[in-house]
């Protein structure tokens, strides 16, 4: 049986943390896209991951019902 040394454990911890962060980012992006689509907001001419899209989403306003 192999017991990982502290360096191996550290790399595994960083790898797991990165994977969690990536999954969280993807989930958040999907939630935001769903929210925007429910409010009929569509971006046709801008790539979804571009800085321009981020700026456009950041400047978006919504009327309160």
Largest sheet: none
Rg, rounded, reads 19 Å
Mean pLDDT, to the nearest integer, reads: 85
N-C termini distance = 62 Å
Percent helix: 55-70%
Q: How many DSSP E strands?
A: 0
Class of secondary structure makeup: mainly alpha
Q: Give the helices and strands as they follow along the chain.
A: HH
Strand-residue fraction?
Answer: under 5%
Count of helix runs = 2
Low-pLDDT segments: none
3D structure, described in words:
The chain is an all-alpha fold. The chain is 63% helix and 0% strand. The protein is built from two helices and no strands. The chain has helices at 6-38, 51-58.
For the structure shown, list the relevant keywords.
65 residues, mainly alpha, 0% strand, single chain, 63% helix
Explain briefly what this protein structure is:
It contains 2 helices and no strands. The chain has helices at residues 6-38, 51-58.
Topology:
Elements lengths: L5 H33 L12 H8 L7
